[in-house]
Amino acid sequence: MEPMVVPVIFMVVTVLLSVALSLDCSGKQDGVYDEGCRSYTKCVNETAVVMFCKPYTAYNRDTYTCDDAFNVPPPCGTYRECSTLSDGAYPDIEMTCRSYYTCNRGKFFGHSLCPSRLVFNQELQVCDWTFNVSKPCGTLPATDLSMSIEEFMTL
């Protein structure tokens, strides 16, 4: 395993476990209560269970389970080319920046969803309110780190 992959995987697992531990399933019916592209959290007998998707699969919101990525609607089922991009996260412009994808050492690490009403802030590398984010994702004037949709589509 490459040196940079371990910290990224550790960070993702830590975040997902903290989400599962914070989900209180007491009194909730069995079902999915938290969704991501590579995992989801469901309540089973009032206990939170994190389900991870196998490689080349993604969470399918239509079937409430992991599925072949080709069967999953955007953004989770969409592959991105990262071979020419710097390490970091990039907004899914065509999804109005409500999700983003991660590249590390030229490899695509999948998509992540922003919480409701937030968009991806590329400058800060976090999901944020639109009034804090530069165009094209937010309402602030574009900065030198931002790009037009046309420029983004040529990457």
Automatic annotation (TrEMBL):
Keywords: Chitin-binding, Disulfide bond, Glycoprotein, Repeat, Signal. GO terms for cellular component: extracellular region. Gene3D superfamilies: Chitin binding domain. The keyword DNA-binding does not apply. Residues 22-78, 79-139 form the Chitin-binding type-2 domain. One of its GO terms (molecular function) is chitin binding. Residues 1-22 form the signal peptide. PANTHER family: CHITIN BINDING PERITROPHIN-A, CHITIN-BINDING TYPE-2 DOMAIN-CONTAINING PROTEIN-RELATED. This is Chitin-binding type-2 domain-containing protein. It comes from Mizuhopecten yessoensis (Japanese scallop).
